Amino acid sequence: MKIIPFLAIFFPVLIFSQEQPIQTTQLNELLITEKNGRATIDAEKPATFPLGVTVLRNKIAKNFRMRKVHSNAETESCSITFLIDKEGFVTEVKAYGDNESFNREAERALLKIKDKWTPAELNGEKVRYRFRIPLTISFNQK
Prior knowledge:
Layout: H1 3-16, E1 31-35, E2 38-42, H2 53-63, E3 75-84, E4 90-97, H3 100-111, E5 120-122, E6 125-127, E7 129-138
Antiparallel strand pairs: 1-2, 3-4, 3-7, 5-6
Helix pairs in contact: 2-3
């Protein structure tokens, strides 16, 4: 019987102490669009690498250390995803692929590039922007 008054006081506290979800009006940096049945986030002006995509790929290739990748396959591939923050810096780098050594080396090669990006913009404000770069490496079999 002593537990009932305790539950009567404690249970409402649990209900009313839940965190309120962020209202969509507070998420002014996101523009959600529907493409092929998937919701995607777009910006009016996407983030850009100041020297161009070709130079970015060349810098990744230059920083890539082939000897650190261990594989018996003819080719390996992964996708690197990362964020460009509001100041133009690369953050939250993660590579996804079957070969862990290739993934780690791809992440390291991208993080070694210190050039600052031009941040994405939405409604005239700088916003975070997610990028994805696919990478494939071919090994010469002797």
